[in-house]
Amino acid sequence: MTVRGRERGGAMFEESTSSENLCRSGAAFRIRRDVMPGTDVEIRIPISQQVARRPEADFTTQGRIVYVGNQVSDGDRLVGVQFVGPRFHRVFRRDA
To answer: Strand ranges (DSSP E) for the chain?
Structure first.
């Protein structure tokens, strides 16, 4: 997934990461940026690596940061985002 927004100091950022948790109303992921709760971000989630890389094949929404964990030893911090734009409506099957 790709997250785009503003850091605590106001600088714009775009960072690629992977989700720790994903549901219809939000997502949790790790990023290296210093962000604050209440900050709005744009989130783009590829639907499938098997689908041709077309922008319309991705899920794009806006989110509001509701949780920022402490920075851990690798420099990342866990961030929780509530979707405030379109909700995620895709259903996934578990891998066998």
So the answer is: 2-6, 12-16, 19-23, 26-31, 40-46, 58-68, 77-83
